[in-house]
Write a structure and sequence with these properties.
Strand content: 5-15%
Shape: globular
CATH superfamily: Glycoside hydrolase/deacetylase
Distance between the termini: 37 Å
Number of helices: 8
Radius of gyration: 17 Å
Order of helices and strands: EEEHEEHEHEHEHEEHHH
CATH architecture: Alpha-Beta Barrel
Structural class: alpha/beta
CATH topology: TIM Barrel
Helix content: 25-40%
Number of strands: 10
Number of domains: 1
């Protein structure tokens, strides 16, 4: 079983490497469809049971629940009978994004609750990206608990759905964070790269994903889910991006004044 991680989807010029256009997303979903692969929500996969995995399905996920991603991804995936997951930082619903790098200087907005209701009504999973999108590995116990618990409470109140899945902000997780997520009641949690730990026993609290980025060529996108000689390179690219992104949480926290 595999998982793809997207972020923003929009038509306007945006030099963020985490943005893809609706046309690109459509081409990529068409490639999956043509290969006989079905896109499904992250929480519908048995990540703790490798024997139950289906190689003809792939989890399609979108971190940050950006407005553009919701407005474009839901209808694009529906063209192929696919559904996916939006990981929502609940404190930022309907607000302007403040942490993603935007070389154009323009900021995008996170989806509103009405947009998320639309996604829910189309069969999408609405899941947690923690509450305020802080690096969970740097928080004290009470703050960590709040970051994990708040999305469950807020999403249930606003959308009437139970939350099963979490995507760690900035992809950052350690043993303490994974334990807190599990104890809060999450069944599955997603990383932004493949897990550091190798082994035959899957860890549902450290599910690896492959990120899809603006400059991925068609052959590179196929390697992300189809294997082949370029698959290792795609995983290496994700690890490089993860390393380069490691300073973002500290810069964001210092700039915003959040502690």
């Amino acid at each position: 079983m595999r998982a793809l991680a997207y972020h923003q989807v929009q038509n306007r010029i945006d030099y963020s490497w985490n943005t893809v256009s609706p046309a690109t997303l459509r081409r990529q979903m068409r490639m999956l469809f043509a290969a006989g692969i079905r896109g499904v929500p992250f929480g519908e996969v048995s990540w703790n049971d490798a024997a139950a995995s289906d190689e003809r399905t792939i989890a399609v996920t979108f971190d940050d629940a950006m407005s553009g991603a919701v407005r474009h991804a839901v209808p694009v995936l529906a063209e192929f009978g696919f559904r996916g997951t939006f990981f929502v930082p609940t404190e930022w619903v309907g607000r302007e994004n403040r942490w993603d790098s935007r070389f154009s200087g323009r900021r995008a907005s996170h989806a509103t609750w009405d947009e998320l209701r639309m996604a829910r009504d189309h069969g999408w999973e609405i899941a947690s990206h923690a509450h305020s999108h802080r690096d969970l590995t740097h928080l004290d116990e009470s703050s960590l608990t709040r970051e994990c618990e708040a999305p469950m409470e807020i999403i249930m109140r606003e959308l009437g759905v139970s939350v099963r899945s979490l995507s760690y902000p900035f992809g950052r997780c350690d043993d303490r964070v994974a334990r807190a997520a599990r104890e809060t009641g999450y069944e599955f949690a997603a990383l932004s790269t493949s897990p550091d730990r190798a082994g035959s026993v899957p860890d549902p609290m450290r599910v690896g994903r492959v990120c899809v980025r603006r400059f991925d060529l068609a052959i590179e996108f196929r390697a992300k889910w189809g294997g082949g000689p370029l698959h290792g390179w795609q995983r290496a690219k994700d690890r490089i991006a993860y390393f380069c992104n490691a300073g973002t949480p500290a810069v964001w926290q210092r700039w915003s004044g959040i502690r």
